[in-house]
């Protein structure tokens, strides 16, 4: 008897088709999940940039507040408020007011 090529049986062919179908389903699921993750990554990147900008803005605001705090504690500011709001002057200072 000559040994010839064996033809795959029907059950073997069905098994291969089933395995190929499962692999295709898994591949499609993987592609869909990859797309979702890519979209989510883009959202997080945009959110990160926005938060970094907010941090810079708040740091600048903090610096402005510190500068204002230093100015408020200065004698220049105290003298200005005493003159403008309270109308106080030094003992030897002469104050002229315009008649109006």
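Sequence proposed for the structure above (100 residues):
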């Amino acid at each position: 008897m000559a040994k010839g090529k064996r033809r795959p049986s029907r059950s073997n062919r069905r098994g291969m088709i089933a395995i190929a179908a499962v692999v295709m389903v898994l591949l499609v699921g993987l592609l869909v999940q990859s797309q979702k993750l890519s979209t989510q990554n883009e959202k997080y990147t945009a959110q990160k940039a926005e938060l970094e900008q907010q941090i810079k803005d708040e740091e600048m605001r903090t610096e402005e507040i510190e500068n204002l705090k230093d100015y408020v504690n200065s004698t220049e500011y105290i003298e200005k408020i005493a003159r403008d709001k309270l109308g106080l002057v030094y003992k030897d200072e002469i104050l002229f007011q315009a008649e109006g």
